[in-house]
Amino acid sequence: MPGSVQSIERAAAILQVVAGSGGTLGVTDIAEAVGLAKTTAHSLLRTLLLVGFVEQDPATGRYSLGTALLRLGSSLDTNELRARASNWADALAARSGHAVRLATLSGDEVVVVHHVFRPDDSAQLLEVGTALPPSSALGKVLLAHSHPHTGSRSGPRPPAVAAELGEVRARGWAADRAEANPGFGGIAAPVRGAGGLVVAALGVSGTRSALFDAAGVPRPLVLSMVIDAAHAVSRELGAPGA
């Protein structure tokens, strides 16, 4: 029987350590945990970073699992995602008074997979299957948690876009202050799966004045409702620490 490939074994060991750390380890800690020289661990981490299997926090240098792993191994399909999110999305619409959308990435596209109408008598169109612009709140959340070098046909992100997406990752929510649709905006938060990776974005949409104050700051009650609902769906999906 052929022997194992050492570099693959080492990369697998690193991924296991990173997965178990919850994004709290730097290269020195990882090298010590897997029993490798720091230079060897760093070389392997650079390769894993390039292909999107790990991500590195630019501020702290610590590593976490990358979203490319989700595309390889996730067994979560759209129907299951919708089923587990449905009750929380309905409750969010009822409490906030706004339309609620759940979206995922399909290649480069931000696609609505579940839509709850705002609870009033106005005419509304079902948006399931609609592709949203990346400047939407849902789009910002999903792109913030996708790897910038894999699965994209649009090339490297401009520095300003990369900086904004970094802020979205750090604070845990995104806002669209009428950037995608004049007069209307959105607030969204990430939904995580059982492995801790972001699998979807959940958010509300409505008029800019209803979601933000005059300075463009999200209204605290609406923001907290969105974050709480996204955490609740994450718990339904078995996300650690959600």
Assign the CATH class of the largest domain: Alpha Beta
Q: So how many helices?
A: 9
**Shape from CA axes?**
elongated
Rounded radius of gyration (Å): 19 Å
What's the overall average pLDDT, rounded?
Answer: 86
Helix proportion range: 40-55%
CATH architecture of the largest domain: 2-Layer Sandwich
* Total number of strands: 8
Structural class: alpha+beta
Low-pLDDT residue spans: 149-153
User: What order do the helices and strands follow?
Assistant: HHHEEHHEEEHHEEEHH
CATH superfamily of the largest domain: GAF domain
Q: How many structural domains?
A: 2
CATH fold annotation of the largest domain: Beta-Lactamase
Distance between the termini: 43 Å
Main sheet attributes: strand count, strand direction, barrel closure? 6 strands, antiparallel
Spatial order of the strands forming the largest sheet? 5-4-3-8-7-6
Strand content: 15-25%
Blueprint of the fold:
Layout: H1 6-21, H2 27-34, H3 38-50, E1 54-56, E2 63-65, H4 68-73, H5 78-96, E3 99-106, E4 109-116, E5 131-132, H6 137-144, H7 159-171, E6 174-181, E7 184-192, E8 198-207, H8 208-211, H9 220-236
Antiparallel strand pairs: 1-2, 3-4, 3-8, 4-5, 6-7, 7-8
Helix pairs in contact: 1-2, 1-3, 2-3, 5-9, 6-7
Descriptive notes:
May be an activator protein for the gylABX operon. Keywords: DNA-binding, Glycerol metabolism, Transcription, Transcription regulation. The chain has 242 residues and is α+β, with helices and mostly antiparallel strands. The protein is built from 9 helices and 8 strands. The strands form 2 sheets. It has a 6-stranded antiparallel beta sheet with strand order 5-4-3-8-7-6, with helices on both faces. Strands 1-2 form a two-stranded antiparallel sheet. Strand 1 (54-56) and strand 2 (63-65) form a beta hairpin. Helix 1 crosses helix 2 (27-34), helix 2 crosses helix 3 (38-50) and helix 6 (137-144) packs across helix 7.
